[in-house]
Write a structure and sequence with these properties.
It is found in: Secreted. Its main location: secreted. The chain has 21 helices and 23 strands. The protein is α/β, with parallel strands linked by helices. Helix 2 crosses helix 3 and helix 13 packs parallel to helix 15.
Length: 612
């Protein structure tokens, strides 16, 4: 997808690091990202377009909107993701005009006033980085709870290897100073916190306080520069190394996360709260406030008189490897880069699909017959004449037929790009008439398709060989394609996938047999045709979570269902919803089914039926 990241900031912030980290991961996953902001200090591979969101006069904001509209058009932007109030306000108006969705990440407590209640500018969904934000924007600003999503700051834990405790003579020895690092800006509320922390440690000469952050030293801090206890290191790019060479870290937000991942005890003090020493018992409270940065009410609570005691307790914690490791594992789980980026990535496609009421249609056929004499008992066919009409319509309306091979390596994320009007035609079972009747028409109209083959069966034994007296009527025998015919279709650009050995209901047979049906069908087909089979179709659309896990473990990239699965294609790549074509479907019905919005109607119909 094509995403626009919008920030408003004049110096490095947690929001910028968040947006830059997210951008890096999205680009690595095949998305295109553009960043607009007043400034940017973190390296990013995305194009950067400066835009002074912090200039907030009416005229400037109109300029922001005009500029955003030009960017949206130029880069074919499909989703805008704003990370600040100033940028979100302008983006909300631009998105409304451009008719594309807006998502915001709310990084801090929001001001409460009438205009904010009227124009919330949180977008379709707002991602809240902690519980206190989620509580505040729903309670005080009236934003709907079901339109908020709790996802914490994303951190790549692999870049923060836990370090052993720094070697010192003793806690009290003058030659073995306790190195405490305070990391954060020296401006605004964080500057107030830094000022109080310095005052609290000055009476304790065994502590050396390193103050890390801020490009310039504000005037009120000048009085401390003569003290040998206080070291002002300014803005640094080697923060990870400085954390590792510290005994105790003081900070909030991302600082707390990175310090814990590095195996250092953290005293969480942010703009709003003094959370104190973070332990396994106090972690939940620290997470709720983003390590002290955000309260859910408009008040602050600080206890700097506890700081010295917390530092001493932090030193004891630094020697407790088990507690630090448990703390690290919990933080690693809460701030998982893989989990959070995947959730945001899926949110982008979900909100776009919901907003546009469109998703790539995946169509399901079985047989294509030339005359009435070829039809069977069951209605799993279309006539060649009607199939020709389908292909002619697709070609006339500018559709491009694609296969799952075309969508691999993240290319399915390009399905909404300008000019990409995609549809996937699938055929189950591999009937011989797919070769005799469907292939000539596919060639005539220059269309692709995906056919799912059986790994053992040579005819439709699953519905032709029913026991005598069965409630299910026996179908006529229809031959499946022979390998030479499959090879010819492969050469014509048709993709083939696996459909088990002989078409059982996978969720209704023993797990061992289900696994054999999945794995062995893949192995058999790859042995016969000398190429990988990476797409799977569940017979009858019969599946559950255990069956999906088997398909994934077998090495398939995509798996298609029938009348199950989310309306969003990539919500679950192992349960992709398909739209069945039946012999009684008119051309009007076919047009609806390939429109891209049919599944919205279908799912609503299914939901109504369940409620009855």
């Amino acid at each position: 997808m094509n995403i626009l990241m919008a920030l408003s900031q004049r110096e490095i912030t947690g929001a910028e690091v968040y947006a830059a980290t997210l951008t890096h991961e999205l680009i690595a996953r095949g998305h295109k990202v553009v960043i607009v902001s007043d400034t940017i200090t973190v390296h990013t591979e995305a194009p950067f377009i400066p835009l002074a969101f912090n200039q907030r006069s009416f005229g400037e904001r109109l300029h922001h909107v005009r500029t955003l509209l030009n960017i949206i058009k130029q880069y074919d932007i499909q989703v805008v993701h704003a990370h600040s109030r100033a940028s979100a306000w302008s983006c909300a108006l631009a998105c409304k005009i451009a008719r594309i969705p807006l998502i915001t990440t709310t990084h801090g407590r929001q001001p409460v006033h009438l205009s904010r209640k009227i124009i919330k500018a949180f977008g379709e969904y707002s991602i809240c980085v902690c519980e206190n934000i989620q509580t505040q924007i729903t309670r005080d600003l009236g934003f709907a709870l079901d339109r908020t999503i709790l996802l914490r700051n994303m951190v790549d834990a692999s870049t923060f290897a836990p370090q052993p405790p720094r070697l010192r003579c003793s806690d009290e020895d003058a030659q073995g100073k306790i190195i405490v690092s305070l990391i954060g800006r020296l401006s605004g509320p964080k500057g107030d916190v830094a000022y109080e922390v310095i005052k609290a440690v000055l009476p304790h000469p065994e502590i050396t306080l390193r103050v890390i952050g801020g490009h310039d030293l504000p005037e009120r801090f000048q009085q401390f520069t003569a003290s040998p206890q206080i070291q002002f290191l300014g803005y640094r790019t080697d923060v990870a190394e400085l954390i590792a060479s510290s005994d105790v870290i003081i900070g909030a937000g991302r600082v707390g996360i990175e310090a814990i991942l590095s195996g250092r005890p953290v005293i969480a003090i942010g703009e709003a709260l003094y959370e104190g020493l973070v332990t396994t018992e106090t972690l939940a409270a620290a997470l709720s406030s983003n390590f002290g940065d955000i309260n859910d009410v408009k008040e602050t609570r600080f206890h700097f008189d506890r700081l010295y005691t917390d530092i001493k307790q932090a030193l004891q914690l630094s020697r407790d490897e088990n507690s630090l490791q448990e703390l690290r594992e919990r933080v690693q789980q809460e701030f998982s880069l893989e989990h959070i980026v995947t959730a945001i990535e899926k949110l982008y496609s979900q909100v776009y699909v919901q907003f546009k009421h469109y998703e790539i249609p995946v169509i399901m056929y079985h047989r294509v017959i030339a005359s009435e004499s070829e039809k069977g008992v069951h209605g799993t066919y279309v006539t060649a004449e009607r199939f020709r009409e389908h292909l002619a319509y697709l070609k006339d309306k500018g559709y491009t037929t694609v296969t799952f091979d075309d969508l691999r390596n993240n290319r399915y994320k390009q399905r909404f790009d300008r000019g990409n009007k995609w549809v996937i035609l699938t055929f189950d079972d591999g009937y011989e008439d797919n070769y005799t009747h469907a292939l000539p028409l596919l060639k005539e109209f220059g269309c692709k398709a995906v056919i799912f083959l059986m790994g053992e069966a040579t005819y439709n034994s699953w519905d032709a060989d029913v026991p005598e007296g069965s409630a299910q009527p026996a179908e006529r025998r229809f031959a499946l394609m022979t390998p030479d015919k499959v090879q010819e279709m492969m050469a014509a650009g048709i993709e083939f996938g696996a459909h088990t050995l002989n078409h059982p209901r996978l969720a209704h047979i023993p797990a061992a047999e289900a696994r054999r049906q999945i794995v062995q069908s893949k192995q058999n087909l790859e042995s016969i045709y000398g190429r990988e089979f990476k797409t799977f179709a569940y017979p009858y659309g019969d599946l559950n979570e255990e069956i999906k896990a088997m398909v994934k473990e077998a090495g398939f990239d995509f798996a298609v269902a029938t009348d199950s699965g989310d309306v969003v294609f990539d919500h679950d790549l192992y349960q992709i919803r398909r739209i069945a074509i039946f012999p009684g479907n008119s051309m009007h019905t076919f047009k609806r089914k390939v429109s891209g919005w049919y599944n919205f109607v279908k799912i609503r119909r299914e939901q109504r039926a369940k409620r009855k």
